[in-house]
Amino acid sequence: MTVAAGRAPGPAVTDAMIGALLADVALIPDEHRRYTCASWEARSQHGVGPDLLERLVRAGLSSREGDDGERRYDGLDLGNIALHLGLSSVRRIAIRSWGRTWARMRRGPGRHVLRYVPTCPDPGHPGECAYRFALPGGELREAVLGPLDEPPAVTLECGPPPPAPRLPADLAALCHEIAELRFYLLAESIRWDAGFMRTTGIADCGGSSTLLLEGADRLGYETRRSFGLIVAEPFSTPHHWGEVRLAGAWVPLDPMTMKVLARWSPSVPDDTPVTRPLTGLVTRISGEWVPPATHGSTAAPEDPADEPRVSYLTEYHAHGGTA
Questions:
Q1: Any coiled-coil ranges, and where (predicted)?
Q2: CATH number of the domain located at residue range(s) 93-323 in this protein
Q3: Which one of 153, 213, 255, 271 has the fewest beta carbons within 10 angstroms of its own beta carbon?
């Protein structure tokens, strides 16, 4: 996906804003960066145009010179800059789509049709592509796909979620504590480091879910990890969250994601409680990360960033018609 460069309407980007943002970014150790993002990608993927990029570099944004003599930047650094400065970026667009799902499912019942659309990681190999897909609900489905074959599809019913349970006071306090962390996109190699999160006050949704589960365990609750998808049109997004068993049911709690939605999605009221469950917005695949698509000619990756490219094409249909 390519986005238009530029910043959404709002306050001008000041030197003070840049300085505060880069001070947080600098807390992330450099060994967790991948300098692969060229200047044109900073503009097309993150909305960071050349003038702003120059200001960021002068203020201390880390970069490396590539073999071609061009400067390269870390994509997560640029993603964080885009989110916090309100730029029109791929991730900001995704968060807005999550919020639209959140709002729409409260208006009435419908369904999402979710299609896994893989890109072959080994183009030119003999024969057709043999994939193994990990689908919502834990189903594993094998499929041999040629260029014109339809990818596997899953239909997920959606609608107004049941009334949110009132969280016990100690669990609600834990959610508010987690939400005090500052949201930053982090590499797989550091996102789960509890010491880093506690020392810096920085976390992403996956890492903060670890702190939530650790805290809930200490309080005596039954918990489980979850990996799956945030379901949203036009593309769903892989996601980690935590679940706590309350009154016999698993409740998906993710105060960091609720904070992000209330802050960056116009469809979600800014006073939405961080204790609100993600019920209806997420669909569970497994208790831990699994490659959503494994290609028969290549080994399964250990790092999610190295998995075969998969798009989770999602269409919403209202009952009785198409939205």
A1: none
A2: 3.10.620
A3: 271
